Amino acid sequence: MVLEGKVELETAGGIATIRFSHPAQNSLPGRLLRELAAAIREAGAQEAIRVVVLCSGGDRTFCAGASFDELAAIETEESGLAFFSGFALVINAIRTCPKFVIGRVQGKAVGGGVGLAAATDYCLATPQAAVKLSELNVGIGPFVVGPAVERKMGLSAFSQLAIDASTFYPAEWARQKGLYNELFEDIAALDAGVAVLAERLCAYSPEAMRELKRVFWQGTEHWDTLLSERAAISGRLVLSTFTKEAIAQFKEKR
After folding, report:
1. Fewer Cβ within 10 Å of end Cβ, the chain: N or C?
2. Residue 156 burial (CB < 10 Å; 0-12/13-18/19+)?
3. Residue 252 has pLDDT above 80, yes or no
């Protein structure tokens, strides 16, 4: 059975809620990555929208990162570049969106999921939202999401996550390092906190928020090129014998 997943965009009261979901722990195949980037761009283009909330389905994992089924199917550098460019598209869509993007992280974030959380402008989470950059385990690295993670958490924390690729770091650690702005005791409290923040932002000047976001992201104007270059690195490494065998072993354990 093919696990498809979906991206949903809902708008109400000036708030756009973008929700992605996938049966495999909210992992992201290329199609969903492109739909997610398109939904963010669409929300950013709507004048009536004041703020965007990015969330995922279910009450456990926020995002398990890249789809291992698609990773295993990559046979050329071109297809590898195309797949990893999906994460670049989403990060750049958030970066260039003229509205603040609030992250709602209810559970574990792995690999690309950490990158999504890092790319949001303000991120709220629960204590279950542990983080791990697992890419080195399968012979690649967090090349595409790295700039977003480093920008939010600093080089030291990014390096720690990237090198210690087998460890889940607690949500409180991620909060202390700047990935999460606030932690809430459970999902109900998280949703209430997201609603309060989103409604508060809706009352602020759209022009002021747009200019402030430009200030926050100053110095990232080259990311269209940078993330594409990083995607090419991952696209090349995913073809290695080491990575092919590591992904096959991972799939056998599932």
Report:
1. N
2. exposed
3. no
